[in-house]
Design goal:
Shape: globular
Order of helices and strands: HEEEHEE
Structural class: alpha+beta
Oligomer: single chain
Distance between the termini: 29 Å
């Protein structure tokens, strides 16, 4: 997926989150530990969202968020929380799976897609 398609997919998900009452804190947050596509806040919950987009489905999009990718996202989230004074908030890791061509792909949003404990 090109960067342009990635940014467009992330923009669609960000708009979806805003409609759901989230404030977008960051898009494409990067630090030395990794990158998180979208970080949002709603009440006392900070959500870290991994966005995956494919035009053709050869395998499940959810399989693209590997255990090593989850570890990087979690480490990056901890860094963000520590450096942005959100450590008193509830933290959640979600996945947004977009399937089909832009501008109208099908969105599957998965709250609590993974946890630090791997459950």
């Amino acid at each position: 997926m090109s960067k342009i398609h990635g940014y467009a997919a992330e923009g669609l998900v960000a708009r979806y989150l805003e409609k759901e009452g989230f404030t977008i804190l960051a898009k494409n947050y990067t630090c030395r530990l990794g990158e998180i596509d979208i970080i949002g806040l709603k009440k006392d919950t900070v959500v870290f969202v991994e966005v995956k987009q494919r035009t053709k489905s050869y395998f499940a999009l959810s399989e693209l968020i590997t255990a090593s990718k989850q570890k990087k996202i979690i480490a990056t989230a901890k860094y963000f929380l520590l450096h942005n004074e959100y450590s008193n908030k509830i933290c959640r890791f979600d996945a947004a799976l977009l399937e089909g061509a832009l501008p109208m792909p099908q969105l599957t949003y998965i709250p609590n897609a993974f946890t630090e404990s791997g459950e």
